[in-house]
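Dear colleagues,

As part of the handover before I leave the project, I'm documenting each prediction I ran so the next person doesn't have to rerun anything. This entry is a single chain, and its sequence is reproduced below.
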Amino acid sequence: MYRIECDGKTLHDMRDEKYMLLSPKVSLELNKTGNLDFGILSTHPEIGSIRKLHSRISVYDDEELLYVGRPTTDEADFYNYGQVSCEGGLAFLLDSIQRPKERGRAYNFEPISTNIEVFRAVINEHNIQVEASKKFEIGIIDIESASVENFDANYEKTWDLLVSKFTTVYEGYLRVRYEGNVRYIDYVKQFGKESGQEIRFGENLLDLKRYIKADNIATAIIPLGKSNVTIKNANGHNGSDYIYDSKAVGLYGWIYQKIDFSEVNDPDTLYEKAKEYLKKCINLAVTIELTAIDLHLIDIDIDCIKLGDTVRVVSPLHGLDRNMMVSKREYNLSNPSADKITLGDTLSFLTEKQVGLQREIAQQRNATASQEEIRENVGNLNNKVDAAHTGISMMGGKVEQLGTDFSSITVELQEVKNSIANLTQTGTKMNQSISEILVRLETLEEGGETNA
């Protein structure tokens, strides 16, 4: 059962009418601060305890902590009905700034040479500026270490700097994690766990949308390294300062983009990195976003789904059978059946035709089992037809021996023969249709086209 506390005092409890908030909702999203919104009546016993920015609002699911934040705004209408909005713990990073540092050094003059050291220095500087209730212990930093020689700051908010220097550069997610009374800040590649629950079409899948964007397409890139090193002198290159993909140019035309590799000072290394980067630039971003419900609300024995969890999604109608990450989780604390889960995944294809082809291949694969069943049924049908023919032949011989008295029976048997012959012909046609389907399926799987 959900409950909400404000600085340790009960703010919401469904078991007591005096302590019930109006439409409390929690919304959590990857690399976002998260928010809590609720309405409150003027008669609420703790209405005077909510202090903007100062109070700590905690949301629990039984004994599990779901959310910690602070109230930022409140409003009241003519009838003194209040509406309160809160922001999550990551918002504490908006309260500090990152001053320019001595080149390559932190505030305590310890050298900064890697991105991991940058992360530690930024959080430590935040902790210096804020009170204890906003400090973070540095937890897990799960990113590949990379050398950083020219790191500097320019009076950005700590949150803004982490977004620009980390979440948009390195694969990973900022996460606030509580262990007892200790608040940790992590930077992790895997935010949650692999859920034991599945999302399936016809069961708990509510909606699905597919977006295809060409906003970031580049068919030619100009890579620049440290001290403006270029690829002109790179081995195996043609002496120009750019590289391009001829197929992508034919599809989309010439679209140039400059890419900085500030840590690279060797033309050959720069050339190799540029080729790898170009592979990403030429593809369309296909984003799949779907909404589902958590079956844990119906059966507590089913594994619940949380923000950042990886969930298997199966929908033959959309050609989907893949693991996707929960990018957004909404909790309706007064009506849990209205909870929503949003999953997102981004795929890359060179053309929209490939997008449709991949979807068609998946759908054909889902239909393979049914086709095998049809083929097996037709085989069984042919066996029965052959057996029937044998029986008819034997019966026909006996009828001829009995003479003309049984001529009417012979006529009826002939009709049966004709019916079975028609059935055999139908089975043959079905076999031919199945063969054609299998040929088309093999062609699609090889990436080819059919003339059908």
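Confidence is low (pLDDT under 50) at residues 354-375, 377-382, 402-406, 448-452. The longest helix spans residues 352-402.

All the best with the project,
I.
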